[in-house]
Design goal:
58 residues, mainly alpha, 2 helices, TIC32
Length: 58
């Protein structure tokens, strides 16, 4: 992909791979969140809460 969501998806997957390599098998989950959409924010919050994990960002 040369533009749009495809480029961003490829970039994120590359970053994820680099982090896992640097941290020897660390578990890294990528979740979609569009802060311009309350539907997306609610969906993200519901999915994240269902994982019962601490939040280590913000």
């Amino acid at each position: 992909a040369s533009s749009g969501i495809g480029v961003e998806t490829a970039r994120i997957l590359d970053v994820k791979e680099a982090i896992v390599k640097e941290n020897h098998g660390a578990k890294l989950d990528v979740m979609e969140l569009d802060l311009s959409s309350m539907v997306s924010v609610r969906k993200f919050a519901t999915e994240f809460n269902s994982l019962d994990l601490p939040i280590n960002i913000l």
